[in-house]
Amino acid sequence: MQEERLDSIEALEQFLAGTAGIAPRVPGGESERQAHVRRVLGRFGYGGLPRQHKGVVVRYLQHTSGYSRQHLVRLIGRFLAHAPLGQRRAPVAGFHRRYTEADVLLMAHTDALHDTPSGLAAKRLFQRAWQLYGDARYERLAAISVAHLYNLRATPRYQGARVSWQGTRAGKAVSIGVRRAPRPEGRAGFIRIDSVHQGDQDGAKGVYHINAVDCVTQWEVVASCEKISEAYLLPVLAELLAAFPFTILGVHADNGSEYINHRVARMLGKLNAELTKSRPRRSNDNALAETKNGAVVRKFLGYSHIPQRFAAPVNAFCRQYLNPYLNLHRPCLFAEERTDAKGKVLKRYPQHLVQTPLEKLASLSPACRNLRPEITLQALQTQARAMSDNEAADQLQKARAALFESINRRLTRTAA
Question: Any bridge partners for residue 252, and if so which?
Fold first, then answer.
């Protein structure tokens, strides 16, 4: 390509217009392309061109050299600074290392023997090893500065020498509870339980909500207590379990100590209920309770801080208004399971399976309902028909508004 004939800006513009879609390149390697850039910039006197003409020259060089615009800008800057266009080469000889790899390994060995003492103490050990005991390996380390000692400790070579691998230690086995998922087999009475904290404020804890849900019917009972210690939790837990209309056959919790302890185990033992706990890496073991925490507890009681002294009125609200509404008037989604050809279980939620927990309980066989002797299905249905779903929801909303208004009024009076 005889590009020397292009000796004007108009010629360059005609060349760019005529070679649109074509990529003519200067033959040769990196040095030839840099020489081409230098020739063109010198031939057109790039430094004295107006801005518009400079853009034409840059587009021409980008078209013929194959360089990106960013790299051309760097080369032009070097040309204008009368510097060579080629990249600067790194110096052949680097910095002199005073402390060798052997010194770093010796330091790591010494630190391991003495459980990584402080820098001053480590330097004194090096000095004693060289001056007192005559170990020639410590001659250079005896004169090291404390600051550079810490620099060497941060190097990959030192870190690699100090790495110690230890397998995961098995925790002490806790004999309380069985580590597996509940096995209701279509029977009511297997409860999943979890705690929900109502937030902190200025270091003060809020109330705790205990959320318990039946695996099969999704019958749900929410209760509140001041703290999750045994003195506060056990009475509320006993009240909560007694609020279910069926016999409790099992309780499943995560591994929190508020449920996995001997007192709770003795309480469930009196009820002949099995205590199970979640397995590691099995997030679905307690997924039903976790889902209800957000869909019910947080939706109706919110995220705002409620001081612990209001646990009693909040618990009364749950007992009188929230729990009856949830179980008698609030529909829940129940899954329809199907196994495909590959053995994967698929879940669907058809419209005809959207039921209230009471309707789901009524659809079970009498043996699977597992109702307490003093409770009948007819009594529960009569209680549900005493008011419509909308009336129950309206009553719940008014009671909740009155509850929070009372709490805010008492907080305002205290602050004043």
Answer: 192, 276
Q: Do 230 and 343 belong to one domain? A: yes
**pLDDT value for 183:** 87
pLDDT band at 23 (very low <50, low <70, confident <90, very high): low
Under DSSP, the state recorded for 3 is: G
**DSSP for 205-242, written as a single string:** EB-EEEEEEETTT--EEEEEES-SSHHHHHHHHHHHHH
* CB-neighbour burial class of residue 30 (10 A; exposed 0-12, middle 13-18, buried 19+): exposed
> How many Cβ atoms sit within 10 Å of the Cβ of residue 368?
17
Residue 398 tokens, joined: 């008014």
Query: CA geometry: angle at 186 spanning 182 and 192, to 5°?
Result: 35
The pLDDT > 70 percentage for the chain reads 94
Q: Does the pLDDT value for residue 274 go beyond 70? A: yes
Residues 70 and 124 in one domain: no
Domain boundary among 62, 80, 98: 80
Do residues 44 and 185 both lie within one domain?
A: no
Q: Are residues 231 and 379 in the same domain?
A: yes
What's the CA gap between 200 and 305, in Å, rounded? 6
pLDDT of 88 > 70? The answer is no
Residues 320 and 204 in one domain: yes
**Residue for token pair 């000796």:** 7
The DSSP symbol for 251 reads E
Of the candidates 403, 364, 395, the one whose C-alpha atom is nearest the C-alpha of residue 198 is 403
* pLDDT tens profile 361-412: 999 999 999 999 999 999 999 999 998 999 999 999 999 999 999 999 998 8
Q: Which domain holds residue 158?
A: 110-162
Indicate the SS3 state at residue 187.
Answer: coil
165 pLDDT tier (thresholds 50, 70, 90): low
404 and 329 share one domain: yes
Same domain for 153 and 207?
Answer: no
Structure tokens at 147: 């600051």
Residue 89: the pLDDT is: 57
Of 247, 270, 223, the closest CA to residue 361 belongs to 247
d(CA 257, CA 291): 21
Vertex 172: Cα angle to 168 and 174 (nearest 5): 130
